[in-house]
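assembly run, all chains below
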Amino acid sequence: MTVAIILSSVLSVLVLVLGLVLPAINSPTVPFGVRVPAQHANDPTVVRQTRVYRWRVLISGLAAAGLGVLIYALTGETLLLPLTVLLVVGAWYGCFFLAHHEIQAAKAAGGWYEGLRQGIAVDTALRTDPPRFPWLWLAPALIVTVATAVIGVLRYPSMPAVLVVHYGARGAPNRLAAKSVGTAFSLVFVQIGVTALLVGIAAAIFFRSRADIDPARPVGSARWHRRYMSLGAKALLGLVALIDVGMLGSSLLMWTGTVTSWAPLVVVLPILAGVVVAVVFLARNNRVRDEGEQDTGLTHRDDDKYWRGGLFYLNREDHALWVPRRFGLGWTLNFANPRAAMLLAGVLALIGLLITLRFGR
Amino acid sequence: MILNVDLASEVPIYQQLRDRIVEAIADGVLTEGSSLPATRSLAADFGINFHTVNKAYDLLRQQGLIRLNRKTGAVVTPTAADPSFHPEWTARARTLLAEAVAKGIPADEILTTCRSVLDSFGTTLPEDTP
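ok done. output:
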């Protein structure tokens, strides 16, 4: 009970804080997912909508969290608490969309792009001399996974005959299984699957994603992109290592026969810490720094028509699979690319397989 | 190398790509043996059709500035004097200079512009050049 409340509260606060700080760390020329020329980045509409958005996020986020707690207090149903987090996310997107809609309307009414020279800039060196993938950062994840497997092999003879393989929402074990290689090492299989999946995604983004170079200041923008790619890959690999640490901790509880209501925290806390560190690192570097580069006179092309709701990229003519997010951190898929559907289906299938391996009877 | 394309320009995109690459060779950013990205990845980076990039690369190949190879891709070729190039280039330069004269730009200003453009490529002129 207590664990579910703590986790839901921490996640809700995390979403709320992220929602509040996002306008400050996003590109100033893409406020709320609307592409605007640099001279309109501080337009009164944008400034007003940013202020209104923050108030809306704060009020609706607190209301959503309060509603979740109230429902829990009335029903005592712990499963409803994670739904509170989804409610906060939904409230955040509603606030985002309202600001997005208002700015888009002001942009259309004011003809912000009229008379401007729109352009595209590309740094060919990103293809001919790409930055190095930080493979060394994969070492912690591999070490933790190998260590988990080795500890498991050494402890296997002394493990209890019956193992706890699942905890319920109230933090009590609700599924037991007879000791076997499949049950004892189920979390090692999860470690291997998650590590392979996330490293694959990190490498795909690193080598295949398209850089969004600012044609007004392309040199500084390309330099930032290289740094950000490297940082993003390191953040993701660090997160993988912490997910594996969570699996190691959970495996140790299972193998030693330790039963505690705090068991879910052993898995979730390292992952949560990894997410927070990754978000902080990416957020601190999410904006291109002004290095005094001379303006080329070109403006980033208005590509709003390819973004649905300011968040989802759909462009059939674009062969790129990964593109930088317009609002938020990191990258997103080109959902009009058939490979995106295949990738999503593959990820869902893998998650399903892992869940079956871990929790299937 | 940064490649810029102006979408509002009357110059077609393939021509702009070709021009930027020629300028990069003149600037010394691209030297003999420098590789250019594969047509598909450059097209994906620009978000344009790969036939557009193909057309630009083909122009450069016809002008002897790059060679295209299945294994090595597009590579900048060694600078070599082409006897047929000079008369053709002179004709184009004549039209360009004629435009400046027709628009009333003084001759000394035209020369200064030519000199500054050459300077930007790091080309040194003989000291007695007016």
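Chain A has a mean pLDDT of 86.

Chain A touches chain B at residues 116-128, 210-211, 213, 215, 218-219, 222, 296, 298, 301, 315, 317-320 (CB under 8 Å).

not gonna interpret more than that til we talk
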